[in-house]
Specification:
- The chain is mostly beta strands.
- It has 2 domains: 35 residues, no CATH class; 274 residues, Neuraminidase.
- The chain is 0% helix and 44% strand.
- The protein has no helices and 31 strands.
- The strands form 8 sheets. It has a 5-stranded mixed beta sheet with strand order 12-13-14-15-21, with no helix packed on it. A 4-stranded mixed beta sheet has the order 1-2-3-4, with no helix packed on it.
Amino acid sequence: MSKLNISRLTNENEDGSPKITGITTFSSTAFLEAPKGTTAQRPENVAPGMIRFNTDSGHLEYYTGEFWDEVLVKETAGISGRGIFAGGSTPTITNTIDYVTIASAGNALDFGDLTVVRDVPSGCASKTRGIIAGGYSGSELSSIDYIEIASLGNAQNFGNLVSTRRNRDGCGDSTRGIMMGGWAPTSAIDVVTYSSTGSATTGGALSAERFNTGALSSSTRGIVGGGTGTPPAGPQNIIEYVTIQSLGTAQDFGDLIEVSAWASGTSSSTRGIFVMDGTTINYITIASTGNAQEFGDSYNATNKTITGNGTRAVIAGGYTPAGVNTMEFITISTLGNSNEFGDLTQSRAAQAAFSNGHGGL
């Protein structure tokens, strides 16, 4: 066995590490420096298992053979199960971001601000990063913001959607977020990879154009329900699903109990929840197909949103027709009406809602 005592090892260009073959052991009380660079500097023709430090995300990442994914990030105690409500209207369009700890009732606290004011944006999240996409700010937006959920602060620019639109609900698994449908009327499905920044890509389509839909997911399946069809088509009760990692054209899942011009969704790993205009709450079993069933009632409002930690779901905001700051909660695994949770920092509706503990993770 050879022994090599050095403080730093680089390739001949001094811009990365050398390639070492065979069995090699490193022993030191110092550190091993991985190759590093921005998302845009990711190398091409990469073999599965290659690892680097992404200076944009601040995390180690590895190549799966299909995409770059983050090395497991340790969750900070007390941060897992944080719910986020971003943007919306008071009715004045706002850039406010609120957060709550879903497991414990109480009033929302200020998280930071979006890069621009956004009404009816779409939201989805991994365990570490939240995405706020599209929306309306006097005209439809294509820009995407992101936040690091464990640390408070203002949102940063992520990239752009494939087209300008207000999306409403998003969903996803631990690596990929998807936004389905939206206005100006579209059936398109946009896809982002949480750990990187950059523009979304096209991932398939719904069976028809719809906007103001609700979305939720398990770790494999993304589901969208309700919303409004392209005028003159009105409120819908359609539920459709895609496989998140393969996508394509959405397939029929079943129907909501009733049509709803507006819907918002969240889930555990097995059960999906749709909250709709009025008081109606529906539920589905994600792994199967079939019509939704009655869960219970929430407070009477339009344009409210919902997110959850897989056990508990929080319903927030809305119009009655005046804006409300009310938050209520339900326990996903049981049936029944919602109960008081607390208040948002301001009365508003139509915000993006997501958490770092939803059923798709």
